[in-house]
Automatic annotation (TrEMBL):
This is Sphingolipid delta(4)-desaturase DES1. SMART domains: Lipid_DES. Belongs to the fatty acid desaturase type 1 family. DEGS subfamily. GO terms for molecular function: retinol isomerase activity; sphingolipid delta-4 desaturase activity. The gene is DEGS1. GO terms for biological process: ceramide biosynthetic process; fatty acid biosynthetic process; myelin maintenance. It catalyses: all-trans-retinol = 9-cis-retinol; all-trans-retinol = 13-cis-retinol; 11-cis-retinol = 9-cis-retinol; all-trans-retinol = 11-cis-retinol. It is found in: Endoplasmic reticulum membrane. It is an enzyme of class 1 (oxidoreductase). GO terms for cellular component: endoplasmic reticulum membrane; mitochondrion.
Length: 323
């Protein structure tokens, strides 16, 4: 089962996150980056095509044997479902219609959410904005694992189980760390999702409904794309809080791997983040980076010095404004 890791608490830091200062320095030297701060209208058509692709898949699997339903749920459904969660990530930053049409992005996020089977878009947006404003903030940033996760998932076998159960922990963590009153849009998101799920079950049957839910859960658990959950902020090198990934899976994930670039410029859509890196290469080339999310998953499990506790955490000062 592996040996328990040495770390027994989070890495508490007493400095601000690095992204605001780096953003300021980059814009002073490369003001042309401001021209990239605009919506990616191609995202709209990509999301529509992804929704249509899943609707076709729901139809195609409805009469398959269960073993093939499971096969396609993992091989295809999991990939497109995880990719859709990252499209929703883009939409949460108003990347589809821009800041001037913020509500259009919220409605579009609910639409993109439909083939996932589980309501996600509106709640994700509320908590994700906190993650950017208060990175590592104690009691605010729900991307940080709970103390129980850090304490219990401390051996190789348990860390493997933790990766498998990532969807579960991401779902319950906000309720444990930073519960918020349910909003009107969250209720609409829930009702729209339940209605869609009932329609899929009624017209296509249990296998299509199972494919939809299973694909989402499998895609967010033990899956190569899920390496980004750990790669983004887990402290493999002491003192470094955010890491970028420059491998091929960025093609399926709206360049979420360009994570230092994204936190520096959250209002620049993923499509343009490689250009940010190219323009400001002197700021990014020497930062720690990855080229394989699979290797990140392997190293997380096998390295006894890494665990869910391997995150920077900070006490927040002053007023905290949340969505």
């Amino acid at each position: 089962m592996g040996n328990a890791v040495a770390r027994e608490d989070f890495e508490w830091v007493y400095t601000d996150q690095p992204h605001a200062d780096r953003r300021k320095a980059i814009l002073a030297k490369h003001p042309e980056i401001k021209a990239l701060m605009k919506p990616d209208y191609n995202l709209i058509w990509v999301v529509v095509l992804m929704v249509l692709a899943q609707l076709i898949a729901f139809y195609l699997v409805k009469d398959l044997d269960w073993k093939w339903v499971m096969f396609w749920a993992y091989v295809f459904g999991s990939c497109i479902s995880h990719s859709m969660t990252l499209a929703i990530h883009e939409i949460s930053h108003n990347g589809a219609f821009g800041n001037c049409r913020a509500m259009w992005n919220r409605w579009f996020g609910i639409f993109a959410n439909l083939p996932l089977g589980l309501p996600y878009s509106i709640s994700f947006k509320r908590y994700h904005m906190d993650h950017h404003r208060y990175l590592g903030g104690d009691g605010i940033d729900v991307d940080i694992p709970t103390d129980f996760e850090g304490w219990f998932f401390c051996t190789r076998f348990r860390k493997f189980i933790w990766i498998v159960l990532q969807p579960f922990f991401y779902a319950i963590r906000p309720l444990c760390i930073n519960p918020k009153p349910i909003s009107r849009l969250e209720i609409i998101n829930l009702l729209a999702q339940l209605s869609f799920d009932v329609v899929i079950y009624y017209y296509l049957g249990i296998k299509s409904a199972f494919y939809m839910i299973a694909g989402s859960i499998l895609g967010l658990g033990l899956h190569p794309i899920s390496g980004h959950f750990i790669a983004e902020h887990y402290m493999f090198l002491k003192g470094h809080e955010t890491y970028s990934y420059y491998g091929p899976l960025n093609l399926l994930t709206f360049n979420v791997g360009y994570h230092n670039e994204h936190h520096d410029f959250p209002n620049i859509p993923g499509k343009s983040l490689p250009l940010v890196k190219k323009i400001a290469a002197e700021y990014y080339d020497n930062l720690p980076q990855y080229n394989s999310w699979i290797k990140v998953l392997y190293d997380f499990v096998m390295d006894d010095t890494i665990s869910p506790y391997s995150r920077m955490k900070r006490k927040l000062k002053g007023d905290v404004k949340q969505d």
